[in-house]
Amino acid sequence: MALALVAAAIGGWALFRSTEEAEEPIVVGTTSTPTMVDPAGAYDASAMALMSNLYQSLLTFEHGREQPVPDAAESCGFTDNELTVYRCTLRDDLTFSNGRAITPEDVKFSYERIQAMAERAEQEAADDSIPEDEKFSYAGPSALLANLVAVRVDGRDIIFELEHSDATFPFVVAASPGAIVDRENYEMLELRDDWQVDGSGPFLLEAWNEGESAELVPNPNYRGANEPPEFPVTVRYFYGDEEQSAEEQLAAAWENGELDVNDGKMPPQVMSAVNRSDPQRPVTENTAGSIRVMAFNTDEGMPMASQVARQTVAALLDRDSIASQVQQGTVEPLYSLIPVGYTGHGTPFFDQYRERDPEVLRQRMVNAGLPVPLPFGIAYSRGAANHEEAAEIERQLEEDGLFEVEVAHYEWDEFIPGVYSARDYDAYLIGWRPDFPDPATFTDGILGPGDGMGTGFSDERIDQLIAEAQAVSNRALAADTFLAIHELAAEDAPIIPIWQEKRFTISRDEITGVQHLVSGSGVWRLWELRRI
């Protein structure tokens, strides 16, 4: 009987593949390149976007409302009024792509694995007996699980115990830390770097072509909240080289007719010239939640450990010039870490930094005992017009002699382990995409104890306000608390907002579903794409 069942399964898969092979893949181009496809180690938006197609979480985000709804779970909910115990019941018809049935123990393992790796990295960082180049480097999503105390299994149920009230925990479950992996094929304390995936999402990763593309095919065994995909998808990644930037490569591929969907960043001058009225190349525009920031290393002894130094940078930064001149109007200036479209958005970095007189700012630095000019370095990696943007920021900060700036560019695969994870920087420029569609994603993980941007900054007042906001089940009622958090964040300025992205997606007119592709949840809904 077992042999017959296996044969039947293989036969069904073969039939499915022969049908799908007749379908031409939809080719999607992007400049957003992933670092890996292991949910325990990937915290970059590019990896999270790809993984949202390959793995399932207990919950996912309902398109349109962007609220958590059951996916791998039959149901989920808090079981106490204090919002500290969250319980989910796992569906009983789920299998990994390798054919093994998904169990509650796999879910438990997936969460504990993230926490264990973060703990390992912390322990090795403090262990002087381990050579620096041999220490475990970790840049995963553990900051989102900072409030998780324990995970228990009770039959088909998974029970999450939280340290304190947290109305946003369902959003965390629906986001990348909730991705369920096969505990028999993923190690507890080692990241999987073979670009193989044992997941249960809408797509299977049929092939990863290093530096080129990811080939996705529909998962015939997907069971969940989303509509199963009808077409295979090939994601073409553009990395850039010595001759062309990634943005220039993407633009050339689009002009050459190599793509069905262009969902990346082209050079600002190219994007600003796109005909938005062309019916054969429709443009979908979204008010994206992605923001661009400058983050500082605030550790004692570092150049930007001084609050006054960071405040001076915040005052000198001319966001309007960067948005209009460098980014050519394809972004909006941003004066809060919470962007437009989210509860709690305000303009504290405008309100608090009206004083821009260089002589006044110079005197403040002198009074704080700072050398003038103050030397410090800014690291940066990918992004549309990233070289021009870094050069413009350097010019603005050096113009009046208050700072002496050295900018350094890194390739993305060097930036994450060598700069971001190792915290080997004075300051760095980076994009931040929301982990989930709630203002807490711009607060808890990057300003709170999770320290998701590795600034080393902490503030008890902010931590207390974060806890207060987490306890509010009606998120609209937390607006004033979020405003208060970001008033304090602007005052200390460990992270400075620069601009908010406008998300443009261009497609051929025979492709449908593009309007559902991206949203504030960070989910990349490739399964929505259809060819007509």
What does this protein look like?
49% of the residues are buried. The strands form four sheets. Strands 1, 8, 9, 10, 11, 12, 13, 14, 15, 16 and 17 form an eleven-stranded mixed β-sheet that branches. A four-stranded antiparallel β-sheet has the order 4-5-7-6, with helices on one face. It has helices spanning 2-20, 45-51, 104-125, 169-174, 246-255, 268-272, 307-316, 319-326, 348-351, 358-367, 386-398, 412-421, 444-447, 460-470, 479-492, and strands at residues 26-30, 59-61, 68-70, 73-78, 85-90, 148-154, 157-162, 203-209, 213-218, 233-237, 261-262, 283-296, 331-333, 374-380, 403-409, 427-432, 495-507, 511-512, 530-531. It has 15 helices and 19 strands. The protein is of the alpha+beta class and 532 residues long. Helix content is 29%, strand content 21%. The longest helix is centred in the N-terminal third of the chain and has 22 residues, at 104-125. It is globular and about 70 Å long. It folds into two domains: 34-208, D-Maltodextrin-Binding Protein, domain 2, CATH 3.40.190; 288-502, Dipeptide-binding Protein, Domain 3 (Dipeptide-binding Protein, domain 3, Roll), CATH 3.10.105.10. Its main location: other. Pfam families: SBP_bac_5 (PF00496). This is Peptide-binding protein. It is found in: Cell envelope. InterPro entries: Peptide/Ni-bd (IPR030678), SBP_5 (IPR039424), SBP_5_dom (IPR000914).
